[in-house]
Design a protein that fits this description.
By secondary structure, the chain is α+β, with helices and mostly antiparallel strands. It has 10 helices and 18 strands. It binds zinc ion (ZN) (2 copies).
Length: about 375
């Protein structure tokens, strides 16, 4: 397969997950609709009230519980190739939870690991169908596997990042001035898709004082000259996400560039971001990466204005493990992909954030994004 994850990789992931279930001394892993299911099978199943459930027992064959009307969609997914995942189909009037007990080993005591997003209603019904069982989270064993990306995944993440780079360049090129943030956010969504994403996932467009709010929702505010514009945008391509932030200054009517205060926090953010990117290598802790940017910003006097963690893992989800935050003593390994996104936010005035998607390689950190990071002054016309 030229664009996507190969069927062989899904077969390998299912085997690794099965081994991890045995290692955790659990009876089975029960995976509902969501990113864990996509990672294991390539199946982006319908969410909803009908039970879809991948059953990965420590012993015995794997199985997939599917509503009859969704069976063709399941069988078309690469993880189901070669009959690897036998379907246990239920009809509209069946109780799908009665399919469960025969699928799992009768070995006592029973303990099940459920995916993070499995509906509470499903979990409660499973607990009724499998009385006396213990329950835990599948993410405890899946997240350590998912966060080490293979070469195929890194190719896809890089392609998504480069599509986001092109979309960013188009938006920065304008027109911006005199238009609302919401209008520009619609442009962002169009540009993300036109540049190669399957879907646009988010578009933060924060102008002037709104740039001081890290998760600002694009508003009816008119973008003006002589102020900053923060753009944090991303989309999904072949399942994998992009996530990039750039902050630009829109020149004043007379062509004047940024005021000194803005330039100061921009340069400080850029220095902190560069320090963190340079610190990426196998063996470094995620809290040390956070600290490497934070120390630069604190030394410049703005530590209290860097009010969020440095970054988050990036893959099938926009936010996933690992989290780059104080207190996370886990170490980076080659194949980890995550954002590096320090910011300085001065309430009522303006803010700056610079964000790239990074991959940790055996040699060190590499940015998947290539959009320029220096302070850009644009006309916005
Ligand atoms: Zn972002
Ligand atoms: Zn991010």
């Amino acid at each position: 397969m030229s664009d996507g994850i190969s069927a062989a990789r899904y077969a390998e992931r299912l085997l690794r997950a099965k081994a991890a279930v045995a290692e955790a001394e659990a009876t089975a892993m029960l995976v509902g609709v969501g990113p864990e299911l996509e990672w294991l099978t390539g199946y982006a199943a319908h969410g909803g009230e009908r039970l879809n459930l991948l059953v990965i027992p420590a012993e015995g064959p794997l199985g997939y519980i599917s509503p009859r009307l969704e069976a063709p969609a399941a069988l078309a997914a690469p993880g189901f190739a070669d009959g690897r995942l036998p379907l246990h189909v239920w009809d509209e009037t069946d109780d799908p939870f009665l399919l469960m007990p025969p699928l799992v080993s009768p070995r006592e005591p029973l303990r099940f690991l459920v995916s993070d997003g499995l509906r509470a209603a499903f979990v409660l019904a499973l607990q009724t169908a499998l009385p006396g069982s213990g329950w835990g989270l599948a993410s405890d064993v899946l997240a350590p596997l998912r966060r080490v990306k293979d070469a195929e995944e890194i190719v896809l993440l890089r392609a998504a990042a480069q599509a986001a780079d092109r979309a960013m360049e188009r938006i920065i090129s304008g027109p911006l001035v005199g238009r609302t943030e919401a209008e520009v956010a619609r442009d962002v969504r169009d540009a993300l898709v036109e540049e190669g994403h399957d879907t646009a996932e988010f578009a933060i467009v924060a102008s002037g004082p709104n740039s001081a709010s890290p998760h600002h929702e694009p508003s009816q505010r008119l973008i003006a000259t002589g102020e900053p514009l923060l753009l944090d945008i991303g989309g999904r391509r072949a399942g994998y996400n992009s996530d990039i932030t750039r902050t630009v200054w829109i020149a004043a009517e007379d062509g004047a560039g940024p005021e000194p205060g803005f330039r100061e926090i921009y340069e400080l953010t850029a220095s902190g971001q560069a320090a963190a990117r340079a610190a990426v290598r196998p063996g470094v802790t995620f809290e040390a990466l956070d600290a490497s940017a934070r120390e630069v910003i604190a030394a410049g006097g703005y530590g209290d204005h860097f009010i969020h963690r440095l970054g988050h893992g990036l893959g099938l989800e926009v936010h996933e493990e690992p989290y780059l935050v104080a207190g996370n003593h886990e170490v980076a390994v080659a194949g980890n992909t995550f954002s590096c996104e320090p910011g300085i936010y001065l309430g009522g005035r303006y803010g700056v954030r610079i964000e790239d998607a990074m991959v940790c390689t055996a040699e060190g950190g590499e940015s998947l994004n290539e959009a320029p990071r220096e302070l850009r002054v644009v006309s916005g016309r």
